[in-house]
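[step 3/7] fold_predict: job queued, chain A
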Amino acid sequence: MKVELQGVHKYYEARSGPVKILENINLVIPHGDFVSIMGPSGSGKTSLLNLIGCIDKPGYGKIFLDENDVSGAGEHIREQIRLRHIGFVFQGYNLLPTLTVLENVLLPMQLSNRVQNKAEQIKQAMAFLRLVGLDARAKDSVLKLSGGQQQRVAIARALSNLPGLILADEPTGNLDERSSKEVMDVFRVINENQHITTVMVTHDSKAASFAKRVLYLESGQLTERRLV
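[step 4/7] structure written:
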């Protein structure tokens, strides 16, 4: 999936007046790119990710996903885009503790009804668990897994509806260095082999170095930087 932002601004209302979060963001992320977005806390990184992911709308400006303008789309359309075309990975994993590993990965397919045959759903979910190295743990409770393993389940779940875009918000934020590398290795393999456009917000320069490009967001402005 190609992502393009044209003159995007985002403000939040406060008692003292509008607070600028993003100002005149212009960005093109080609299909199959892997981009890391870095910047200080409060710089608007998650806000930018939410705009790309159709969770929020810009104050003004245009956002295109595969040439389709989603800037002013209604909630129902944005919900369908999120469910069918975007995979989300969060810092806190957001797995359902009452479900098994396999059941967590199956959930997006069941909600979207994209794959109607149950046997095909399981086959597809197991393929993605195999990709992240956890097919042997399919029947286990997610509570039996380490943090790194839970995050890999979350990645498999994000892939389960065959999205064109993966958005990851601090995916290594709760992990130790070894687990972080394992998770980032999975992201890199998926991007290289599946050619899924990937956009990741992170504070971790080691995690950011796995991306093809590193962007830096500060004071609402976006620039491209090389990691030293």
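[step 5/7] annotate
The first strand starts at residue 3 and ends at 14.
The longest helix spans residues 177-194.
exit 0
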